[in-house]
């Protein structure tokens, strides 16, 4: 996937990059000034254009009209302030969606994903990411986030969460978790106390979410989709 950011400062480009890499870890980020962006759309063939209306070296609305005169590439506009007129204008002139600045990384990523569902289903179908509401896990990078907050998990905590999320809604037995996390040689040698300790730690780190790890007494645990 290739994304072109037009007219933004370095901080905004970095925010766009962080947001897109949450779901598309291999994304290539290109950036340009406004007056160079039109040519880069033609020469680079990006999958999406992020069009910042705060660009200073050209009229962003005129530039958007010029872009739409030759390309149907998906465009998300970045808008400062609360002006409804500006929002209507960028949509009228060819943007497919808009996001207000400063960016919410998770909101921006989901808006891009929603846009791809309409325009490029191949890019939308990425099974390396689990998301539900504001909760997101990137299985490629092992990043776990709730809203804009990244949750830092130990390798063991991540393995436990991974195993339960991949079996969402189903009971995962204690033996299965021990087998997946510590290996067959650790079955039946008192690992259950350690398992309970790590489940407690994991729940503590997920405390801002609704209860997502449910105990099934005498059997194991179940991951429930957070609302």
Set down the secondary structure blueprint.
Elements: E1 2-6, H1 10-21, E2 28-32, H2 34-44, E3 48-52, H3 60-68, E4 75-79, H4 84-92, E5 97-100, H5 105-119, H6 121-124, E6 129-132, E7 135-138, E8 143-146, E9 149-151, H7 155-165, E10 171-173, H8 174-182, H9 192-205, E11 213-216, E12 220-223
Parallel strand pairs: 1-2, 1-3, 3-4, 4-5
Antiparallel strand pairs: 6-7, 7-8, 8-9, 10-12, 11-12
Helix pairs in contact: 1-5, 2-3, 7-9
Summarize the structure in words.
The model has no long low-confidence stretch (mean pLDDT 86). Strand 11 (213-216) and strand 12 (220-223) form a beta hairpin. The radius of gyration is 22 Å and the shape is elongated. It has helices spanning 10-21, 34-44, 60-68, 84-92, 105-119, 121-124, 155-165, 174-182, 192-205; strands spanning 2-6, 28-32, 48-52, 75-79, 97-100, 129-132, 135-138, 143-146, 149-151, 171-173, 213-216, 220-223. The chain is 41% helix and 22% strand. The strands form three sheets. Strands 2-1-3-4-5 form a five-stranded parallel sheet, sandwiched between helices. Strands 6-7-8-9 form a four-stranded antiparallel sheet, with no helix packed on it. By secondary structure, the protein is an alpha/beta fold. The chain starts with a strand and ends with a strand. The protein has two domains: 2-124, Response regulator (Rossmann fold), CATH 3.40.50.2300; 129-223, Winged helix-like DNA-binding domain superfamily/Winged helix DNA-binding domain (Arc Repressor Mutant, subunit A, Orthogonal Bundle).
Helix and strand composition category: alpha/beta
Tally of discrete structural domains: 2
Q: How many strand segments?
A: 12
Proportion of strand residues:
15-25%
The CATH superfamily of the largest domain is Response regulator
CATH A-level architecture of the largest domain: 3-Layer(aba) Sandwich
What sort of overall outline do the alpha carbons produce when their principal axes are compared?
elongated
- Radius of gyration, in angstroms, nearest whole number: 22 Å
- The spatial strand order of the largest sheet comes to 2-1-3-4-5
The CATH class name of the largest domain reads: Alpha Beta
H/E topology pattern = EHEHEHEHEHHEEEEHEHHEE
Question: What's the story with the biggest beta sheet?
Answer: 5 strands, parallel
Low-pLDDT ranges: none
Amount of helix = 40-55%
CATH topology description of the largest domain: Rossmann fold
On the 0-100 scale, what is the average pLDDT? 86
Instruction: Give the count of helical stretches.
Output: 9
Gap between N and C termini: 30 Å
């Amino acid at each position: 996937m290739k994304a072109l950011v037009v007219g933004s400062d370095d901080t905004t480009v970095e925010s766009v990059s962080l947001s897109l890499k949450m779901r598309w870890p291999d994304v290539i980020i290109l950036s340009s000034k406004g007056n160079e962006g039109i040519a880069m759309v033609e020469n680079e063939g990006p999958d999406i254009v992020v069009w910042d209306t705060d660009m200073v070296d050209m009229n962003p609305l005129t530039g958007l009209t010029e872009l739409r005169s030759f390309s149907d590439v998906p465009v998300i506009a970045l808008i400062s302030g609360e002006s409804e007129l500006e929002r209507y204008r960028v949509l009228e002139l060819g943007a497919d969606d808009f996001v207000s600045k400063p960016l919410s990384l998770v909101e921006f990523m989901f808006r891009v994903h929603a846009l791809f569902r309409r325009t490029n289903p191949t890019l939308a179908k990425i099974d390396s990411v689990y998301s539900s509401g504001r909760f997101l896990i990137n299985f490629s990078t092992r990043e776990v986030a709730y809203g804009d907050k990244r949750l830092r998990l130990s390798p063991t905590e991540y393995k436990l969460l991974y195993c339960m999320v991949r079996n969402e809604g189903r009971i995962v037995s204690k033996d299965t978790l021990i087998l997946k996390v510590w290996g067959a040689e650790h079955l039946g040698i008192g690992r259950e106390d350690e398992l309970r300790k790590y489940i407690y730690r994991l729940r503590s780190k997920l405390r801002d979410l609704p209860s997502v790890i449910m105990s099934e007494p005498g059997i194991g645990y179940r991951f429930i989709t957070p609302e």
